[in-house]
Specification:
By secondary structure, the chain is low in regular secondary structure. The protein contains 4 helices and 8 strands; from the N terminus they run E-H-E-E-E-E-E-H-H-E-E-H. Helix content is 9%, strand content 4%. This is Pentapeptide repeat-containing protein.
Length: 449
């Protein structure tokens, strides 16, 4: 296998052994303490994949372009370190100190960043007596920078990111529970599908940010700037919805004459279905707020309902085969006996929804070549949902949250439950023949395996 290539160059990264790294780190510690023989750690473009840097003082080190794939950096001190364009995928940075660090363009997808400190950093130096003191000149305070970084699916729970620059950063599906973003600049960042439960966004700048499908339950948003932020499909508390801070945000739309408008949309959609797309018009209910409405028995097969808000709606017996409801708010919706074959519920929130006897199996599409269209529930949030006796054959539930769900008698044969959270789920009588359970959480205690 060829060595890893560096950014913007054809020069391969040099792979270091743990022993070689330890030698460099010892000299860096001496440098930090102004001791003889001390040399600042220059790990630029080095391959440090899978190495152990736990608890190491790497403050002021140059790690630009370094490959730290799956490296262990637990409690490491990276204050003011240069991590520009570093590869930190799957790295464990739990409780690391990243104050003042430069992470511009870094890749941190699926990294563990629980309780990391990304607040303002202060330039420090050691005195001859070994005491650490701040520099006494202007601009000794540095703001941590995550601008244009890729942090998809990373866990930043309870991290301290106050005052940091997080502009144009990809935080898709990141876990940000309890994260402190006070006064942080998140302009134009992508927070699609993020879990911001109990996070603090007070005085943060989220102008132009994308928050579709994000969970913001109990998230502090006082004096935050949401100008042109996309909150369609975001899960918000009633108090948050009343906040004047959201007046300039892009929110779900409400139909002026919902009964008449829906009747017309459904009539045209049925004509579109019956004519094979030659007449009528395909229904597009994307970004609408239809919370609490009775939509029992309607036919929206193959309809477009992305980011729709249907909280508390009744859709018993409704046909939504091959419909797209990704990133939607479907909390406590009644889908009893609904036809959901081949439906797209990716990143949708179905907490407390009732899918008793719902059909979520595959659709066999006939044509020049036969095709099986599977229901997609990847990363769907289905905590406490009722799926009793539901048909879930071949469904994609990878990364979904089914904690506390009722799956009694459900058919999950040949389904993909890779990384699915089944903690506390009731699997009594559940069919699991040929089901992929790789990295599933809570399955051992449920099945006794």
């Amino acid at each position: 296998m060829p060595p890893a290539q560096g950014f913007g160059t054809n020069t391969p990264r040099t792979k270091l052994t743990q022993s070689q790294l330890n030698t460099i780190l010892l000299r860096h510690q001496a440098f930090r303490k102004s001791q003889p023989g001390g040399v600042r750690a220059n790990l630029k473009m080095r391959d440090l994949s899978h190495l152990d840097l736990s608890g190491i003082d790497l403050s002021d080190a140059d790690l630009s372009g370094a490959k730290l794939f799956s490296a262990r950096l637990t409690r490491a001190n990276l204050t003011n370190a240069n991590l520009y364009a570093a590869d930190l995928r799957l790295a464990n940075l739990e409780k690391a100190d990243l104050r003042g660090a430069c992470l511009r363009g870094a890749v941190l997808s699926e990294a563990m960043l629980v309780e990391v400190d990304l607040r303002d950093g202060t330039l420090l130096h050691y005195t001859p007596s070994g005491e650490m003191m701040p520099h006494n000149f202007e601009d000794s305070v540095l703001t941590s920078e995550l601008t244009a970084a890729v942090i998809r699916g990373a866990d930043l729970s309870r991290a301290k990111v106050a005052n940091a620059f997080v502009m144009q950063t990809d935080l898709t599906d990141a876990i940000l529970r309890g994260t402190k973003f006070m006064r942080a600049n998140l302009t134009n960042s992508n927070l699609t599908g993020c879990d911001l439960t109990d996070a603090d966004l007070s005085e943060a700048n989220l102008s132009g940010a994308r928050l579709s499908g994000a969970v913001m339950t109990n998230c502090a948003i006082g004096r935050a700037n949401f100008t042109n932020a996309n909150l369609i499909g975001a899960i918000l508390d009633a108090a948050q919805l009343r906040s004047p801070n959201l007046s300039a945000a892009v929110m779900a739309k409400v139909l002026e004459n919902p009964d008449d408008d829906l009747r017309n949309i459904l009539t045209l959609h049925l004509s579109w279905i019956d004519s094979g797309g030659k007449d009528g018009k395909r229904a597009d209910l994307s970004s609408l707020d239809l919370s609490g409405r009775n939509l029992d028995g309607i036919n929206l097969s193959a309809g477009i309902l992305q980011c729709i808000t249907l909280r508390g709606a009744s859709m018993m017996g409704t046909s939504l085969a091959i419909a797209d409801l990704s990133l939607s708010d479907l909390r406590k919706v009644n889908f009893t006996k609904a036809d959901l074959r081949g439906v797209n519920f990716e990143r949708a929130t179905l907490t407390g929804a009732n899918l008793t006897e719902a059909q979520l199996g595959p659709v066999h599409i006939q044509g020049s070549s036969s095709h099986v269209w599977r229901a997609n529930l990847q990363r769907a949030r289905m905590g406490m949902a009722v799926l009793k006796d539901a048909d879930l054959r071949k469904v994609n539930l990878s990364g979904a949250n089914l904690a506390g769900a009722d799956l009694r008698g459900a058919n999950l044969s040949e389904a993909d439950l890779t990384g699915t959270d089944l903690t506390g789920a009731d699997l009594d009588g559940t069919v699991l023949d040929g089901t992929s359970l790789t990295d599933a959480i809570g399955i051992e205690e449920m099945t006794g395996t």
